[in-house]
Every structure is written in C-alpha cells, then in structure tokens.
Amino acid sequence: MAVDPDGHAYLTGQTTSSGFPTTPGAFSPIYNGGLADAFVVKVAPDASALDYSTYLGGDQFDDARGIAIDGDGNAFVAGRTDSLNFPTTDGAYDEGYNGGRDAFVTKLTADGDGLGYSTYVGGTAEEESGGIALGPGGLAFVTGWTISTDFPTTPDAYDPTQNGDYDAFALALSTSGSRLRYSTFLGTPKTDYGRGIVADGSGNAYVAGYNGSVNVNAFGLKLGLHAGNAD
Q1: What is the DSSP letter of 138?
Q2: What is the pTM of this model?
Q3: In the chain, at which end, N or C, are there fewer CB atoms within 10 A of the end residue's CB?
Q4: How far apart are CA 78 and CA 19, in angstroms?
C-alpha cells in the first residue's frame, strides 16, 4: 500500500477473481488467466470510488509485492511472475522471461491506462521481489530474493556471486527502466530474503530482511549505491 500527498490510497496484490472490480479505460480490465493476476488500485481520498483499477499479468501466476508512487502519480510495482507473456515494454531492461520464476518491475501511468515501462528481472532459476522504493530522479530500488546463480549483477556490485540457497538481492533500475544502474547479491550460505527497502536523497538503499534456515535472524543494512539520478 502507498498514499500520495492528496490522500489517494494505492493498493497492489494478487487476485484469482475474474470478477475483480476494474475501471473503464484501465490498462488491463480483463483477467489474464492462470492461477492469479496481480492488480493495482487507486482509491479516492474519501474511499467513495476507484479512480482506477487494473489487472496486471500474463496467463500463468502473477503476484505484486510492493508499490511506490512518484510525484506525478505514477505507480511503481514490483512482484513475481511465472508468465512468459507478462506485459513488458519496448526498450525495457529485460523483455523476455528467464525461466523458473522472475521478478518484475512495472511503472503504471498516473491514469492507470498504460505502462511507462515494464521489465522482467531474473536468472534461470527463481526470483521474487519483496519491496520497492523510489530514489533520486525516479530510480526504482528493489529488493527480493533469488536462487539463480546467474541473477544479473553489475560490475560495481558489493557481491557479484550467489552464496548458496536463496540470496537476497538489491538493485536500482534506471528512470526509463532500460538498464540496471546497480545490482548485487546479499547473502550467506543459508537462506536470505530481502523484504523491504527505502532510499535516501543521495541514492543509498536501506534493506531489511531475514536469514537463516534454522535460527531465523532479522537484518538491516545500508548500501552505499550512489546510483545517481541519470538514466
């Protein structure tokens, strides 16, 4: 859930309902099939109406885990998908499904009727996203977890190598959604999950999650990404 300065509430999640309430002109007003679709809803400040409501997904399983809103009212959504036909945009960082299960990052336009950008993010095994935040200039900061040894990282990554079992990850996606400004594994030989993220005005990311396959420990860390505000 997120709230804009005018008091609109934005909700995201998953639905198995073909009758989920959508609005005229929504980006995807009809259920796309499969086990579940993600959805994105903007609710009027007094909760009297839906400003927009749309499905988001392909023909398999799609689930949204996090949402953030920019100053123009665009909704940035992160989630996971099993769909080979999840909607992506021309010029996006990764327009093709990578296998297993992929994370996705989608920018929905302010009226809920189109995509600013939409991209897969993943390797050949399994990824899920746990949270999304906006940084300087509209950079999307995303955390989650992966078991893919070939999850995409950048040359300046804190940790470019998968550590065993599930690793957390943190990444910064460019303002156009066309490339990774930064991407790194965060993990131990045990299971590690990134569940929440925020960013400051200098482009640093603060990640929270948990690790350990027997005794579970929470963690919080600051990544000095300094990803800047350029595309």
Answers
A1: G
A2: 0.95
A3: N
A4: 23
Where are the chain's structural domains?
61-223
Q: What is the 3-state secondary structure (H, E, C) of the chain?
A: CEECCCCCEEEEEEECCCCCCCCCCCCCCCCCCCCEEEEEEEECCCCCCEEEEEEECCCCEEEEEEEEECCCCCEEEEEEECCCCCCCCCCCCCCCCCCCEEEEEEEECCCCCCEEEEEEECCCCEEEEEEEEECHHHCEEEEEEECCCCCCCCCCCCCCCCCCCCEEEEEEECCCCCCEEEEEEECCCCCEEEEEEEECCCCCEEEEEEECCCCCEEEEEEECCCCCCCC
Q: Which residue has the tokens 């919080």?
A: 220
Q: Are 167 and 186 in contact (CB under 8 A)?
A: yes
Residue among 131, 74, 85 nearest 107 (CA):
74
Using one digit for the tens of pLDDT, what is the confidence trace for 32-91? 999 999 999 999 999 999 999 999 999 999 999 999 999 999 999 999 999 999 999 999
